[in-house]
Amino acid sequence: MHTSPDILGHPKGLFVCFATEMWERFSYYGMRALLILYLTKHWEFSDAASYLIYGAYTSLVYIMPVFGGMLADQILGSKKAVTFGAILLVFGHLGMTVESNEQIFYLSLALIVSGVGFLKPNISTMVGSLYEEGDPRRDSGFTIFYMGINIGAFTATLLCGYLGEEIGWAYGFGAAGIGMFFGLIIFLWGQKYLEGLAEPSSELYKEKKAGITYENWAYISGILMVLSTWFLVQNSELVGQILGGFGIIFIGAWLLYALFKCDPTERDRLIVVGILILFSIIFWALFEQAGSSLNILTDRGVDRVIFGWEVPASMFQSINAGFIFTIAPLFALLWIALAKRNMEPSTPVKFGIGTIFVGLGFLALVYGMNSSQGLETAVIWIIIIYLLHTLGELCLSPVGLSSVTKLSPQRIVGFMMGMWLFASATGNYAAGLIARATGGGEKTIGWWMIQKSENSEISFTTYNIIQKNGFIDVYSNVGFIACACGILLIIITPLLKKLLHGSN
User: Fold this and answer.
1) Class of domain 9-234
2) Which among 82, 200, 237, 384 could disulfide-bond with 77, CB atoms 3.0 to 4.6 Å apart, if both were Cys?
3) Where are the domains of the chain?
């Protein structure tokens, strides 16, 4: 195992990975905060079309890491995969600065999706490889690493959001691209602190097939990922069909393995994992309204004037990351304190509470929309929904990752993590369908702005009322459904605890 001088008691390589991931998340969340607004305002796509493109894009972001992780495991090694992913991301984000060509826009989305696919799963693997098995510093090392994610997300949504909406789209996307370029430079500079880590597991990458090394075949596969994603983001309905097909395959494989390849204890625990993964789809479908319908609502239907300045809608995307900073340490302490008193909720209960919180967020916003005078909702209700959703995220997301690795047989942990990512992808696509249901139809932002003209004030008011009611109807329904699902999960927890056979 390679060792290097420590910083704050941790290997220097940790801070190389920290900075790389921070800038990658900076670029991703900076672009994400602007995307739905860019689709509707710059390209003047209809709300319905924009929501589907956004849902397809975010779902593919969760699918491609499965393939990027496989190529890294079998051929490239994590270090080469991260470098390749970072290069794709730089080109993708910089391509977003070209505002005049729709095909370049779609290609840029494809480059970003594929870049995340190579970088995201493998940078985490590298962090793990910095520590020996049983090293007590591992958990705190990952805590430091994940802080980078939230720092990147928080700063990006503020800076890129402001630049994109107030100065020009190219400036916001360009800032995201520059951030990713910094991440690439830092990662290349820090190679000396990662020497001997996450290298190809065998010499296979040097071997040739059809005169081409396996390493280059992996890069060619990456380019094919880009091209296929380029096609899919332009045909977003196909993404839903693909998710449905793979969903059947995943569920079938999961059931067959649980029934025929597991002992009774393993089978029961896999059933619980499957149920938790199913509930995670519901959670992510609602939580991911943040970047789509909630972003549109904030832009069009919220009084965003704070201290005399109308805050750009995209900047509100920073609230979630800001709450993570302040609340996550308290949650960690809370679970520890409850565990000492034998009062810590079981994993299914935490999932149930998380699902209830996401539902309560929408119900609180609906209350605020109904109680606010006029067509615009008071900004405090946007802050409240993000607070409640953050509480839900902290109950479900880290717990979900831990439960999948803890409850799944070690021989299929990778497959079950794939199912977890697939569930997140499905949730993100479903988020686009839910957002589309809020209204807007095939009307473009150009049509919307025409209605806003002085000569059409009555029709604009009528349209705004219709759109506001659309948000209220959908958010009310999903809020009650989420709360009901969360309560149901808590009710069946005694049964699930029996299936866990002593695991929490």
Assistant:
1) mainly alpha
2) 200
3) 9-234, 237-504
Q: Where are the alpha helices (DSSP H) in 167-292?
A: 169-189, 214-234, 236-260, 264-287
Q: Would you say 71 and 84 are in contact if contact means Cβ atoms under 8 Å apart?
A: no
Task: Report pTM.
Answer: 0.90
Token pair, residue 178, equals: 């520059």
For residue 449, the one-letter residue type is M
For 200-213, letters b (16+ CB in 10 Å) and e give beeeebeeeeeeee
- Quick check: do 9-234 and 237-504 share a fold? yes
- Residue in 462, 438, 440 with CA at minimum distance from that of residue 452: 462
pLDDT averages per 10-residue partition of the chain, 504 residues: 61 90 94 96 92 95 88 86 95 95 97 94 81 74 81 95 97 96 94 76 78 90 96 94 90 89 92 93 96 93 93 96 89 84 90 97 97 86 97 89 80 81 93 88 62 58 74 96 97 94 78
Q: Cβ distance 13 to 144 under 8 Å?
A: no
The CATH fold assigned to 237-504 is: Growth Hormone; Chain: A; (1.20.1250)
Beta-carbon contacts of residue 450 (< 8 Å; ≥ 6 apart): 456
What helix, strand, coil percent values describe the chain, rounded to 5? 80, 5, 15
| AA identity, residue 110 | A
